[in-house]
Every structure is written in C-alpha cells, then in structure tokens.
Hints:
Elements: E1 4-8, H1 12-23, E2 27-32, H2 64-67, H3 84-97, E3 104-106, E4 109-115, H4 119-122, E5 125-130, E6 136-141, E7 143-146, E8 170-173, E9 187-191, H5 195-205, E10 210-214, E11 221-222, H6 232-236, H7 239-247, H8 250-264, E12 284-285, H9 289-294, E13 298-301, E14 304-307, E15 312-314, E16 319-320, E17 325-328, E18 344-345, E19 350-351, E20 367-369, H10 380-394, H11 403-419, H12 424-429, H13 441-444
Parallel strand pairs: 1-2, 1-7, 2-3, 7-20, 8-17, 9-10, 9-17, 10-13, 11-12
Antiparallel strand pairs: 4-5, 5-6, 14-15, 15-16, 18-19
Helix pairs in contact: 1-10
Amino acid sequence: MVRRVAVVGAGSSGLVCIKSCVEEGLEPVCFESSDDIGGLWRFKESPESERSSIYRSLVCNTSKEIMCFSDFPMPADYPNYMHHSQLLQYFRLYAEHFDLLRYINFQTTVSSVTQRPDFSLSGQWDIVTINRDGEEERHIFDAVLVCSGHNTHPALPLSDFPGYEMFSGKCFHSWEYKDADTCRGKRVVVVGIGNTGGDIAVEISRSAEKTFLSTRQGGWVIGRMSSNGLPLDLTVITRFNNILTLLLPKTLVNWAVERAVNQKCDHTLYGLKPRYRPLERRPTINDDLPGRILQGAVVIKPNLKGFEASGVVFEDGTVEENIDAVVFCTGYNVNLPFLPPVLFEGPDRELTLYKRLFPPSLSQPTLAVLGLLQQKGPFMPIVEMQTRWAVKVFAGLSHLPSKEKMLEVIESERKRNMKSYCCPRQAARLVDYIPYLDFMADETSNHR
C-alpha cells in the first residue's frame, strides 16, 4: 500500500500533486531546489542554470476562467489574461488556502531516484537529495511524482547552421531573454514563430532598428480576443466544439478555421501561411504580430540557412547584412538526469510514457512524470487530471493495462504525431502533442 510519496518540484504541477496526495490520505514530501514555489512562473532578473526562465513582459496565453484549478477560482479582480506576476500570486494563494507549504523542503535538490532491490515486490524508491548546506540525505518512498518541468535546458541548434563560428553578432536562446533593452537600435533576427518567438519579435520591434522573424513552416496566428471581446479560449474550447471536431470531416473544420483566421489577417498576404492545416498543430497566440508586420516593423523571412561574418542567409537565398543579434526561440530538450536510465529508450534516449504519464517499463506503477506534453488549451487543468489519475493508481483505486498494451498505445500515438509534423527532427524533440480534452479518455472519465 502506497503511503509516502515524493514530489519533485514545487511549481504548478508540484502544488496540485501535494494537494491530491493529501486528499487521498497519502503523505507527500516535496523537494524544491529553489527557495520558493512557482517554478517556471518565478521571474528572475538573470537566468539561472538548470532552472526555467521567463521574460519580463510575459502574459498568459490562456484566460483565468479556463486555466485555474478546478476547486480554486482566480481572484475576481484579476484580468482575463494575467501577467506572470499575478499567476505566481495565484499559486501563493492556492498554497496558503490548502496549507501546502508545510510539505515542501526548499533548497533541496533531488540528485537520484533509483529502484530499491525489492522493487518488483515493494515498488519502493531510494531517493538521494542534497540540502541547502550541501549535505547528502537518503530517503525511501513508496511512490514518486516528477514535476520538475522541461523548460530548463534550451535547444540551441547553432551547429546546424554553417558559418556560425565566424558570425560577429550575438547568438542566444530565448531562455536568456529578459527584455528588449539590449536590442535597442539594432538589427535583430528572431528564429521561430511559436508563442515565445512571436512575443519577442513584437517586443524587440518596438525599439530595434529592424526585426526579422524567421520561420521554417509559418504559423497560424490568432489573437487572445474573440467575438464580442470575450477571451478566445473561453469561446473556442467547449464540449460542443470538441464534439463538432470529432464528428465533422477534418477537411471541413480546417477550412472553417482557416477562413475565420484569414478574415482578420490574410496569412498568405502576410507571409505567415504555414505548410500545415490549423488542426495539425497549435496556433501562435499573438495580438500584435500582424500589426507589426503591416507597419514593416517585423519582416517575415523563411528558415535560417546559415551565417556570414556580419549577416545571415535564409533558405530562399536572401541575405540580411549587419545583423547584431540572433535570438533562437527553438524550444527545450527534456533532461531529467536524476531518473533511472532504464526509463529512457531508443538511440535518442527518449523518455517513453504511457498517456504522457507512466513509464511502461516499470514492473510496479509507482512513478509518474507530470506535465511533459504540448497541449491545445490551458496546461493546469490537464496536469490536475494527470495528478488525480496518478494518485488513484498509487492508492490502488485505478489500474494500468499490461505493458504490451501500453507500448501498443504509445506506438500508435507516436505514428499519429509524426504525421502531424513535416519535420521528423522537430517531432522527435517535442515531448508530445495532444488536443485539449482528448486526454486519458477512459482512464479519467470516472474521476473528474
């Protein structure tokens, strides 16, 4: 019987894990390497190695009504789309309301999580931590919830671009970006048209001499505001729309979405039209990018091909000279070095998870990895569902299928995901891609 559960990390996932454990009568012990809660949403003036990092102006892309935890609404005076500091305050209110801080060991780093010699019978884990004084401590736990996130190790593919060694400008990842001050009056290239790339390109363009936004495949760009001024996700992410998406032909739904999006901004005219259909990938959420393109402040360019001494070359053969900086908004690599190597499979040592949660290779389902997913819609409600399911499994109230069945499901989803991406390398780097509300269908329906 699982009793004592280790929770690694005290960000949004870690907090809801602690609460769920307590609700099921389990004893959570959370280890947080920093001195505060919040994880990704704690802004720091300078990026810290092995930690997440966000920029000063960051605003949530999902509205407060739909992103909050199910049993703790956002304060009424919060705006629909919050600044990161307000979301961090929400986590503080959540932790205080449910008395979660007493379960957290701050400035304690988990250095290793290994199976005990009798794991096949007990399902227990040996965990080694390093406290604030640098002292090593050993613990035994019945189960482990990994909530350390995946935005800590930037994917900076400089070696993919010839000539980067001779480039006189500065190349850096968005992980290092805090604000546009260092780019004032300069010529800057932003690589990547995800949410971060769009935000940074827009912000830099307000003070830079010229800003170029380089994209491999383009992107569907939509704003946060829907009809009648309502939050977009509040009107789009509904059970009715989800049913329509499942019942209607995908070609028809894609056509309808493209038509609606192009009425606000013709993506072909603006050089944004991607090679994929809207349902195949997440859109880029940005209120200002089309306007900045219209004003010439942001210039859309194709994929970056290489570097020259003082310029960059794009795949269409065009060259932009006198470039001062290149900002790579190219995502992150998953890195969980404290986990057992047996969980990482294949030549790329990928972490294989059933339903983006449970490693199928374990003889006892007493470890779950939370939040390693790319979703349409808000992150926190999905993690809350993940947590509820994981804790139910730990408590013996829910059971996983056989290893063979889990691997079959994983392979089926992998093939589906690969079809959604034109670039296999990118598909391999992403942890997963799932439509919102298409998650853990049968497993969670009776627990929600």
